[in-house]
Amino acid sequence: MKDSDKHKGLRNQLVSILKVKGIVDKGVLDAINKIPRHLFLDSSFENYAYQDKAFPIGEGQTISQPYTVAFQTQLLEVKKDDKILEIGTGSGYQTAVLFLMGAKVYSIERQNKLFKQTQNLLPKLGIRPKHLSFGDGYKGLPEYAPFDSIIVTAGAPIIPQALMAQLKIGGRLVIPLGAEIQIMTLLIRKNETQFEKHEFGDFKFVPLLENKN
Predict the structure, then answer these.
(1) Measured torsion, CA atoms of residues 2, 3, 5, 11, in degrees rounded to the nearest 10
(2) Is 213 helix (H, G, I), strand (E, B) or coil?
(3) In whole angstroms, what is the distance from residue 192 CA to residue 81 CA?
(4) Element (H or E) spanning 52, and its range?
(5) Which of 30, 66, 86, 162 has a C-alpha 20 to 30 A away from that of 193?
């Protein structure tokens, strides 16, 4: 799987753009600088892979804009060996960023075709999440809870109660909330019943789908 000097140069440029946009977490920037994003896209998009844009990946889904990936990840404040639940595996690009930052990643994807593609792709790139699952992200993965952090990569009308319950005390949940336009939202679990809420402006995501049998 080809990763050329040209691709690496384009990644350097992308990282410079992300810095200008306010991404300061060195771990996030280093991961994005290492990951061959073009391999997560259809080959017809290869020449555009390092633009700061989202692209379709099939099944009505997208690979998120690199700035969005970086912004969400920065909000998580990832530390090595953090146990992180990702809702919406998609192309696997966000999974790869978390893995390269040293996290133990558990990820759920609702679209079976994407799930199989990503399950096949990630090992070829040396990316080995702890667990990839095909299922309903609204339910989380209670059998592996609690998690240090949870990241939701699709727009949700509400914060699923199951995800709040699976977050450790002190843990961070990053989720885009809303219908047409989403507000990036961070919840920090203070104790068994209380969560501290922070909002970080408008983003646009595909919707988080529910009720997968």
Answers:
(1) 150
(2) coil
(3) 23
(4) none
(5) 86
% residues pLDDT > 70 (the chain): 97
d(CA 149, CA 117): 25
Asked if residues 97 and 199 have their Cβ atoms less than 8 Å apart, the reply is no
Beta bridge partners of residue 188, listed in sequence order: 172, 196
Residues 99-128 have pLDDT tens digits of: 999 999 999 999 999 999 999 999 999 999
**Cα–Cα dist 36/172, whole Å:** 27
Beta pairing, strands 131-134 & 104-109 = parallel
The CB density around residue 131, as the number of other CB atoms within 10 Å, is 13
Among all residues, which ones are annotated catalytic?
Answer: 64
* Residue 86 and residue 131 in contact, taking contact as beta carbons nearer than 8 Å: no
| CA angle, residues 78, 121, 87, in degrees to nearest 5 | 45
pTM above 0.90, yes or no: yes
DSSP secondary structure letter of residue 114: H
